[in-house]
Amino acid sequence: MSDSSPEVFAAWGGGQDLSAWEALMWRTEGDPRTRSTGVLVELLDTEPDWDRLVAAHDRLTRRIPRLRERIVDPVLPLVAPAWSPDPHFDLAYHLQRVQLAGDGSMAELHQLAAQFAVRPIDPTRPPWEALLVCGLADDRAAYLFKPHHSLSDGIGLLQLLDLAHSRGREPSPRDDHPVPDPRPAESPEGLLLNRLTSTAVHAPTALLREATGAAGRFVGDPVGTATAAIKFARSFKRVLTPPDTAHSPALTGGGSSYRLDTFDVPLAELKAAGRAAGGSVNDAFLAGLLGGVRRYHEKLSVAVDSIPVAIPVSLRTDNDPMGANRFAGARFVAPVGEPDPAVRIAAIHRFIAEARAEPALGFLDLVAPVLSRLPKIALTRIAGGMTGLSDLQASNLGVITRPLYLAGARVTHIYPMGPRPGIPAMVAMVTYQETCCIAVNFDPESVTEPIAFTSSLREGFDEVLAMGRHT
């Protein structure tokens, strides 16, 4: 495991209560359209020692209490769900081992990962599972980690990977760091009573403080306060309005089946391509993806200029805890019909800059507390309608610069199979050392020509990379 301090391990995951945004994701888990479970697929150069792997997971889950906590829902949705120690935590349930029965190919691993991802999380246990996959070709193995999105966002998961993996093949020196005490256990009834009582006691003071602060701001700067409110209202309307473009006729629906494809792109070449057009690695990633979507439509003889695409935008600051969720969703009219990759990169760069500057970007933090108190059937219907606004979702999780090891095996690739809530396809990327590892999670009912789709995506990235090579 990482040599970080015990305090860093214990702090991963944040506070006890779920945020309103996390509560939304948790309470809509029952519907495949709004399910937010993903899988990190790690390729290993050899099969790790099983006993050592089990022991490492046991130590890790003791040092990071969040991994031994389940989510407790109140008897009525008047307060947020909370994390509480699982009194029957069973590591043998959360960590299992399987042997591939076929040729050990990547295609066989992809199929297993898709089946693993689509299986719902047990809501009575801590919301994660892990699977060691043995029998890959060339004596390799794979490690699959499946967390529910309520546990953490992409950046938080990369933080967890750093904590969970060692720095070499040899076992780390045994540490005697104290294990943090578990949180007080919560029950559905006690959670509701305790939170309502706390709210009743502290609400008057908090409201008075907020009202006093608002009045002070208005008296000190009435014009500025009113102007800020107007700007926020206009931004809220822009953020809430769906992208002004039609859905693609070649990317329809959003069934509950998953299909996985993975491929690699050299970081240096993707960086050069972004720089050549005045953009970033992330801009080039999105431009390659959109180029691939254009080529897929061309192969199907379908004309399309633009489609609605969603991307997450991190809201994290240095004061936010490790783990947990700090992101917002942004939707834009993606220029998939644009054949020039440099023009696509420039357009994407402008959109992301504008999205980050929107005052209302994190509007779900404002409306989620209200939505999360609705009955599940109403909440799921609203959330399902929101996820269906896009044809495609894309996410660049970030960068891992150091080599990772797992119970004596070296991690060679990390593919993030992102959740696909009610949309035809989700494409996510993790940069591991000098390789951009790309995972495509798509619905085989929506993408009717899967071979053409996956080959088109590779061609779209080749198109972008070629631009970088020629500068």
What does this protein structure show overall?
The chain is an alpha+beta fold. 41% of the residues lie in helices and 20% in strands. The protein is built from 14 helices and 14 strands. It has helices at 6-11, 20-27, 50-63, 91-94, 106-118, 154-164, 188-220, 222-240, 267-276, 281-299, 341-356, 364-371, 376-387, 450-469, and strands spanning 39-44, 69-72, 82-85, 95-99, 128-136, 140-147, 259-266, 307-314, 327-334, 392-400, 405-406, 409-417, 425-432, 435-442. A 6-stranded mixed sheet has the order 4-5-6-1-12-11, with helices on both faces. It has a 6-stranded mixed sheet with strand order 7-14-13-10-8-9. Strands 2-3 form a two-stranded antiparallel ribbon. Helix 2 packs across helix 12, helix 9 packs across helix 14 and helix 10 (281-299) packs across helix 14. 44% of the residues are buried.
In short:
The protein has 471 residues and is α+β, with helices and mostly antiparallel strands. The protein has helices at residues 6-11, 20-27, 50-63, 91-94, 106-118, 154-164, 188-220, 222-240, 267-276, 281-299, 341-356, 364-371, 376-387, 450-469, and strands at residues 39-44, 69-72, 82-85, 95-99, 128-136, 140-147, 259-266, 307-314, 327-334, 392-400, 405-406, 409-417, 425-432, 435-442.
